Amino acid sequence: MGLFSKKPVICNICKKETAHKNKPKSEWKIEGPLCADCYVEQMKIFHEQSLRQKCVTCGIEKDVPDLWEPRYQWDMTGLLCKTCFDKKDIDFKNKKSFCASCKKPLGMIRYNPKKKWVLDGQICRTCWDKYKAEIG
After folding, report:
1. Looking at residue 104, what is its pLDDT?
2. Quick one: how far is CA 111 from the chain centroid?
3. How far apart are CA 15 and CA 131, in angstroms?
4. Can you list the residues of the chain whose pLDDT is less than 70?
5. Domain segments of the chain: what residues?
6. How far apart are alpha carbons 58 and 80 in whole angstroms?
């Protein structure tokens, strides 16, 4: 066995003998060497998967440039389609603009409900006082 001698290796996918081995990427979850054809084929598959993703809420698969990134206030990870983004944006604006309990418009001063009150959104002063007296 010489210093620069190359032994032929067998491809892990197509089982053909090849002189040049290619190391697969760790994301592919393939063990062992690949021939050039199989390496290129795996590269194409992985690249096509990275160009398409699913919407986080509805699950529709679209190209990545057609998907929207959620706003940081929403505390979400992933991408949204345009319709889901618009629905989430309207819902978020309503939660910030109207009381979660009585649906009256909120002014400058808003109150965050306590966790044990199980309310989603912010509330007005009168609702805060009502919940504080009832539940505590």
Report:
1. 92
2. 30
3. 70
4. 1-5
5. 9-53, 55-97, 98-136
6. 8
